[in-house]
Amino acid sequence: MDDLSVKTAAAPDFKWLHGDMSQVPFQVYTDEALYAAEQQRIFQGPVWNFIALECEIPNPGDFKTTFAGDAPIIVVRAEDGSVKAMVNRCVHKGSLVCYKPRGTVKEFTCVYHNWTYDLSGQLTGVAFRRGVNGVGGLDPEYDIKKHGLQKLRVEIFNGLIFGTFSDTTPPFREYIGAELCANIERVFPRKLKVLGYHSQILPNNWKLYVENNKDAYHASLLHVFHNTFGVVRPTMGGGIKLSDNGWHHLSYTVKNADSDDATGKEKVRSLQDQYKLNDVRMMEHKLEFGDYTTNAIQTVFPTLVVQQILNALAVRQLVPKGVDKSELIWTILGFEDDDADMQALRVQVNNLVGPAGLISMEDGCVGGWVQTAAKADPGAQTVMPMGGRDILPTEGSRVTESAVRGFWKGWRELMGV
Amino acid sequence: MTTFTSDLTLRLRIETLFADYVHCIDDDALEQWPEFFTKDGIYRINSRENLALGMPVSLVYCEGRGMMGDRISALRTANIYEPHTYNHSISALKILSVATDGIRTQSNFAVFRTMSDGAMSLFNCGRYMDRIVEENGALKFAERLVVLESRRIDTLLVIPV
Looking at residue A71, which CATH number applies to its domain? Predict the structure, then answer.
């Protein structure tokens, strides 16, 4: 029984101007009404929002707080070992029940008026329920047993915890499809360990960062670190995989099998005379998944990125913070059983990624440049004709915008526009 | 009295090192920045939150002047970002210990960032945790750990702190 249940928003006043997904009106990045509708139709609609990692809450009572869209969420390990997720909003006056980022509790108590909840979110107590000296107190008609924090449905996939507000969201494996599940299983095959958190404030609408991740076309053009320093990485194969509905994607590169030395480390060379790296340790790659994939960037609609860049593993959770601002939360990962050398390698290679990452920092500013330019003319449109206009996987080339078009297909289907 | 004078001298020398360091960055003389470190010195930037949680991965991790130089070459030639400058304020130097492997200090900083259009903001503040050694009569950082008070990085971090 949810006291603050979600109402479905009316379809926003918005028209998609073009026939296919290859032209997007700038209005989608600047319109407050669209942003409000996204909260209900997307984040609180039939999607799996990434909310935590199992390894962050290993024991009963361990919790973390986060967001699914604008909605504040508590994720907690219950007494029976299951994971619960609920909206972090007291049924009484709507205060955050829990204002700490993480911790361990026996129950949740809203500090405002001491209403208490068990680890499943069930309301268990109301302060001064019987008043003082029989005067005041809780209305006898208000049945505590019938109230609790609004619950999300939870599914755990390979150590990643997802929550949904909707009863109709399909099981996660079906949601992204077997082919994309296989990549998560590939990069997270063992017990995960958090090696660090970063937070990056992006001066742009959340969708610009999602598009950026799905846009493999920009990678070698905007992020020129490798090219500038002539870092020769004999990477040959690669491509884009898409879920059947186009909502989720995987962009990957694979190198030649014969490019490794006896230790399994890739030979990295700096060829150009003009610009040379003094130290290539941060570019080293130790094969760890029994394959030759060097980079794999995967998105799970709407806002999760699963990252393998050499040995830098991470999940990136995007949290919208208003129509023109987002917070990107990087959780840097390794494995419980990494030895000291492997951890040292991960520390080095993480120089490439994150808010100060040598090949990723540009993604922090480029969305803001679109946001600034888009504001003046919400009716004008982007154009994404690379790789045709359809939404199909490609092999052998990443010069395509098909995954971005796939995102817009999902966005339109959920927004009803 | 001698001890008192030598303490003051040491403090003055460290404060001079710190002033030279921040002016080097603020004056965009970044090619000289690695010279403030020993050859295999360590430079790290991490958040207070990560360090409190014992997290090993930093925002920036440089082991040796070579890697520091690579950071500077990258920001000059490869990385793309809106031009901006820093202005550092430094304060509250505390000498924690003086030992054979160096002098350990803690001090505070604030970095104000100004973008090319004039927009100015407090980019971050925090503390430096340093191990300083003497090499050929000059003080150098054997380790400089930059502890950011806020984990939030606005847009990106490219210039060293």
Answer: 2.102.10.10
One-character DSSP codes across A157-213:
ETTEEEEES-S-PPPHHHHH-HHHHHHHHHH--S-EEEEEEEEEEESS-HHHHHHHH
Interface of A with B in 76-135 (CB under 8 A): none
- What's the whole-model pTM score? 0.94
For the complex shown, is ipTM > 0.90?
yes
Look up the domain containing A114 and give its range.
48-154
- Residue A163 included in any domain: no
Considering only alpha carbons, which residue of chain A is nearest residue B153?
Answer: A200
Q: Does B157 touch chain A (CB under 8 A)?
A: yes
- What CATH number has the domain bearing residue A324? 3.90.380.10
A247 and A207 inside one domain = yes
pLDDT for the residue A257: 67
Q: Could you report the per-residue pLDDT of B88-138, keeping only the tens digit for each?
A: 999 999 999 999 999 999 999 999 999 999 999 999 999 999 999 999 999
Cβ of B157 and A355 within 8 Å?
Answer: yes
Q: How far is B104 from chain A (nearest CA, A)?
A: 24
The amino acid that residue A397 corresponds to is S
Residues A58-112: tens digit of each pLDDT: 999 999 999 999 999 999 999 999 999 999 999 999 999 999 999 999 999 999 9
A262 with A374, same domain?
yes
Q: Are residues A294 and A362 in the same domain?
A: yes
pLDDT tens per residue across span A356-385: 999 999 999 999 999 999 999 988 999 999
* Cα–Cα–Cα angle for B93, B95, B97, rounded to 5 degrees: 160
Q: How many structural domains does chain A have? A: 2
Report the alpha-carbon distance of residue A279 to residue A322 in Å, rounded: 41
Question: Which chain B residues touch A332 with a CB distance below 8 Å?
Answer: 55, 57
Residues A286 and A369 in one domain: yes
The whole-angstrom distance between B145's CA and the closest CA on chain A is 15
Distance from CA of A353 to the nearest CA of B (A): 8
In this complex, the residue of B53, B73, B80 whose CB is nearest that of residue A362 is: B80
Residue with tokens 């008043």: A131
| Ordered domains of chain B (ranges, CATH) | 2-148 (3.10.450.50)
Q: Which residues of B touch A327 (CB under 8 A)?
A: 152
Same domain (yes/no): A118, A204: no
Q: Which of residues 222-261 of A touch B (CB under 8 A)?
A: 222, 224-225, 227-229
Classify the C-alpha dihedral A266-A271-A272-A276 as positive or negative: positive
If asked whether residues A327 and A232 sit together in one domain, one would say yes
